[in-house]
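Handout, page 2. Input:
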Amino acid sequence: MSENNWREIYREKLTTPEEAVKCVKSGDDVYIGTASSTAYGLCRALGERTEELHNVRLCCANLGKPLRIFQEPEHFSILTYFMGPMERKAQPQGNVDYTSVHLSQNEIWCRETCPPDVAFMEVSLPDDYGYCSFGASGVALSSYLLKTDCKVVLQVNRHVPYTYGEENLIHVSEADYIVEYDEELFEVGNIEKTHEVELISNYILDRIPDASCLQLGIGGIANAVGFGLKDRNDLGVHTEMMNDALAFLIKNGNVTNKYKGNYKGKSVATFSLGTKDMYQFLDHNPDIYFLPYHKVNRPSVIAANDHMVSVNGCISLDITGQVVADNIAGRQFSGVGGQLDFVQGAQMARHGQSFIAATSVNVSKKTGAVNSRIVSRFPTGTRITTPSSEVQYVVTEYGCVNLKPLSMKDRVRAMISLAHPDFRDQLRDEAKEMGLL
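Output:
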């Protein structure tokens, strides 16, 4: 298609957000975005139609900016596969639902759980051939959504990075409507490193050699590990989430991707959360390759990388090594995401390692109460994110233990040794009552 032809198509489809959202009808399922690729402008325009719409379901994941439509339970409900700050804020209203799906299988969510009637997609400025990039996070599942029979509304935002990869482009001719709406992406800052986090990261860093391939989860510990690898050589990146720490390693020359088993020479990711500087670093960067969830998170794909290292956090663990990372006593907090995908994939890799890391205690922001993250029993209703049979290394500020080869009694003793000293006696007593010691 010639440059003039696609520009003519672009002009024909171009409209205002207010006009574009008129395609949404009562009873529709509307996909609005994932993480740092969310069509906030279109969502705000949809909010102006609140009184005339009923039973509209908003399909999304990990949203970070407030929206009026999230506070209108009589008109809009929310279905998410990963709870973010805004989904959690809306949760007490009773209009938020969640589906538990490993990200390696996220096409199920798109195809069967929430095939949208309308898809709002935030994209980059079009290139010389009329193709827009799905940007910082959209590639994760937008190509799945295009396979459904839905109306497509593109929100073109000049702040969206043009990223490279597979299934990462949409031509302007594929849109039903196009709007222009410029807004900075949702940012996640880097948490200041505490003494406990430094100790935890050091235990992990001691076990990461040169030429390792990295996956880092969200949170302060994963970031501390990433920034702590500044003296390593020939690292690779095969990660679900691109963050500031990994971007730093790439910029710093620590990452060459020369020893990867797949996508050699490329840092692979599926979505991004970080700072403005990180998003700008992604723009037109040929060394970073974005792929959909099913191509990044599949354990067999992960396992193709020798010396694969997976670092993820959690909310709590029990003394047998079961991991809870997505809910608090059954109340959804985030999502199962890709934790199990990478726990399994890393251990399947030659010389691979999987780490579950957390501080030994949690301090309530409201009351100041100190609770052990390592418990003998989870509260009623708690759902397990990663079963104990899959867990390899567990790390707190009190050490790093490989649970995989241990008998149950040794496993319980090891977990208690990772707990804060103030809780160890109680955990031992409870373990004996349960017949575990």
